[in-house]
UniProtKB/TrEMBL annotation:
<dbReference type="InterPro" id="IPR018152">
    <property type="entry name" value="SOD_Cu/Zn_BS"/>
</dbReference>
<keyword id="KW-0732">Signal</keyword>
<protein>
    <recommendedName>
        <fullName>Superoxide dismutase [Cu-Zn]</fullName>
        <ecNumber>1.15.1.1</ecNumber>
    </recommendedName>
</protein>
<comment type="function">
    <text>Destroys radicals which are normally produced within the cells and which are toxic to biological systems.</text>
</comment>
<dbReference type="InterPro" id="IPR036423">
    <property type="entry name" value="SOD-like_Cu/Zn_dom_sf"/>
</dbReference>
<feature type="compositionally biased region" description="Pro residues">
    <location>
        <begin position="205"/>
        <end position="215"/>
    </location>
</feature>
<dbReference type="Pfam" id="PF00080">
    <property type="entry name" value="Sod_Cu"/>
</dbReference>
<dbReference type="InterPro" id="IPR001424">
    <property type="entry name" value="SOD_Cu_Zn_dom"/>
</dbReference>
<dbReference type="GO" id="GO:0005507">
    <property type="term" value="F:copper ion binding"/>
</dbReference>
<keyword id="KW-0049">Antioxidant</keyword>
<keyword id="KW-0186">Copper</keyword>
<keyword id="KW-0862">Zinc</keyword>
<dbReference type="GO" id="GO:0004784">
    <property type="term" value="F:superoxide dismutase activity"/>
</dbReference>
<feature type="signal peptide">
    <location>
        <begin position="1"/>
        <end position="18"/>
    </location>
</feature>
<feature type="compositionally biased region" description="Low complexity">
    <location>
        <begin position="216"/>
        <end position="230"/>
    </location>
</feature>
<keyword id="KW-0560">Oxidoreductase</keyword>
<feature type="region of interest" description="Disordered">
    <location>
        <begin position="205"/>
        <end position="230"/>
    </location>
</feature>
Length: 230
């Protein structure tokens, strides 16, 4: 009898203890008294990452003139980086356009080092599967010397291991042959020549949230007031 009772007590204690252990495990999440595994984590969507670069000439190439510009980089949840902006003062035609490894202008654009190439690849064009991360192809300047940039790239990033933040944008004297020149220099730099302008990529404030276009304001009251005045 005594043994049976003590066994029963032991059993009850065992059950209670195990359920207590179980409960404490499910309370581990802290905020929610539920097992975290069953409930999704709620979070607010992050604003897109935004960066900006102010392009200017540093006199690396003699007679290149004054080149100026600004390019914005925006990266949303999809991962692709959208680039938009313009550069003025270029000679008409194509100019190699790259991200270089350093955001250093202490000795002009030449302090920016080589093409940003964390994967140790050969030089290529932006659409190539194997390329330097920094290979963005060419900017095409019109007769007025202005190049408008409106494109996106899948390999550069504003965070993580391919981040271009703090690195340099370099615009070259000549056209980038995208690694198809057939010589040694082509698979290194694309034969794009001197560095006519450059700038350091810096983080920028996120763009304002999208606002749907507003309906035209109702100015009837104002008109009434005006007509009453006149
Ligand atoms: Cu370059
Ligand atoms: Zn390259």
């Amino acid at each position: 009898m005594y043994l049976k009772t003590s066994l029963l007590v032991l059993l009850i204690v065992a059950i209670t203890t195990s359920s207590t252990v179980d409960l404490s495990r499910t309370k581990r999440g802290g905020i929610y008294p539920y097992d975290a595994g069953f409930y999704p984590t709620f979070y607010t969507p992050l604003p897109p990452l935004t960066a900006t670069v102010e392009i200017r000439s540093y006199g690396d190439v003699e007679g290149a003139g004054e080149i100026m510009g600004r390019i914005m980089f925006v990266q949303g949840a999809g991962g692709a980086v959208l680039m938009s902006g313009n550069v003025t003062g270029l000679s008409p035609g194509a100019h190699g356009f790259h991200i270089h490894e350093f955001g250093d202008t202490s000795m002009g654009c030449k302090s920016m080092g080589a093409h940003y190439n964390p994967g140790l690849m050969n030089h290529g064009g932006p659409a190539d599967p194997f390329r330097h991360v920094g290979d963005l192809g060419n900017l095409n300047a019109g007769e007025d010397g202005t190049a408008t940039i409106q494109e996106s790239d899948h390999l550069i990033s504003l965070s993580g291991p391919h981040s271009i933040i703090g690195r340099g944008v370099v615009i070259h004297e000549k056209k980038d042959d995208l690694g198809r020149g057939g010589d040694k220099e082509s698979i290194r730099t694309g034969n794009s020549g001197g560095r006519v302008a450059c700038g350091v990529i810096a983080l920028a404030a996120p763009p304002p949230p999208y606002q749907p276009p507003m309906a035209p304001a109702n100015n009837n009251n104002n008109n009434d007031a005006k007509s009453a005045e006149s």
